[in-house]
Amino acid sequence: MSAYLEIFWNKLLEYPVFLFKEIGNVHPGNFLYWLTGISLFFFLAEAFFPWRREQRHPREDFYLDAFYMYFNMFLVPMAGVFAFSHAFEAAFRDLLGAFGIVRLDALSVRSWPGWAQLLFLFIARDFIHWNVHRLLHRVPFLWEFHKVHHSVRRMGFAAHLRYHWTENIFYRALEYIPLSLIGFGITDFFLAYVIGLGIGHFNHSNVKLPLGPLRYVFNNPQMHIWHHARSLPPEKRYGVNFGLSLSLWDYLFRTAYLPRDGRDETLGFPGDERFPRGFFGQIVHGFRISPGK
């Protein structure tokens, strides 16, 4: 146990130094500038090519969501998620090692061409995310945290990263551990993460880009708007359209739902009028509210 605590503490001290260096170091692998650049692109796209033309720009809660983007991408790891993930991974590897399992390399992904490795990582990661997302809707305790994301009332690209800080743990642990054990490294994750960031911003944006048949493969604003719809049929009470980057999973597992054009659909969830509207009230939500209330 002391070894894992040491890993946690070392990474906790290491991250602020790493972040400070990244701010002043412009390079292709700097996620801070990728986030800023992709966000600026969609900010301009929403200004010049809005799907809902009557929606003001910047929209309601834009600045709150913009803060969430940097809080969840950079400040939360400083608070411990970065450190916890490394310590948890080390403990998990040791647990597997006790059974003689060092790596889950049955797929031998390192022998594949680079493009095939990235494609597999992207698809596998998104399938993991689809399953985690379903759990966030079906498990009452987890849903209380996920309500933060569904408190969005007017959709825009920045809403992509409005979510409770605990979701970093759910998603990162459940994606990073199995995929890293297969053999993927941090560079691979970076590329997949940038691609996922761009698609996620697109899904939540106030733009309309006809995808044709590709809409059955990739998520899009016209599909994802229904995931945020306030009212759904009783048989859909646990949610619909869970795909983050790919819509493919929803069509395969029959969770896709597009009954009509959702351009002006009311967003939120039943009872959201009592949900905290400010940042601090939202980040403590889930710890002090009884599940289901």
Essential attributes:
54% helix; mainly alpha; 0% strand; 293 residues
Outline of the structure:
The chain is mainly alpha-helical.
Structural description of this entry:
There is one protein chain. The radius of gyration is 19 Å and the shape is globular. The chain has one domain (2-283). The mean pLDDT is 85. The chain is an all-alpha fold. The longest helix has 37 residues, at 62-98. The protein is built from ten helices and no strands.
Give the topology, please.
Blueprint: H1 2-23, H2 31-48, H3 62-98, H4 114-138, H5 140-146, H6 167-182, H7 186-204, H8 221-224, H9 248-252, H10 279-283
Helix pairs in contact: 1-3, 2-7, 3-6, 4-5, 4-6, 4-7
**What is the N-to-C succession of helices and strands?**
HHHHHHHHHH
| Quaternary status | single chain
Helix content: 40-55%
For the secondary structure, the number of strands is 0
Helix/strand class: mainly alpha
Task: Give the overall shape.
Answer: globular
What is the end-to-end distance? 37 Å
